[in-house]
Amino acid sequence: MSKKTVIVGATPNPGRYAYLAASMLKEYNHEIVPLSIKTGTVFDTEILDLRQKPIIKDVDTITLYIGPQNQPQWYDYLLSLKPKRIIFNPGTENPEFEQRAEAEGVEAMEACTLVLLRSRQF
Prior knowledge:
Shape: globular
Distance between the termini: 10 Å
Structural class: alpha/beta
Mean pLDDT: 97
CATH architecture: 3-Layer(aba) Sandwich
Number of helices: 4
Number of domains: 1
CATH class: Alpha Beta
Helix content: 25-40%
């Protein structure tokens, strides 16, 4: 079953984990919504401008690729997307945001999107 996944910190740079996650999500037939302050496309999908806080409906998962120091300004917006879960990839762990997400009924996972996909736990 496809899970619409918002990739926060998406990038067209093939050397970055956010790019690898987009690639693997597509490989596993999940719909991706790349979101970043960077511009460009990822696998023929336009990267949406995070600063414009676009409305995104039916979000299953948010996977984070921005460090904890860059997250606070986006807490309200990301939680407003009503995801079922937020994946805090290695290096993005943030107890403050994780607690806030859980308080709003959102599952907060410290995990690696790539590992979850490969091990069929996504």
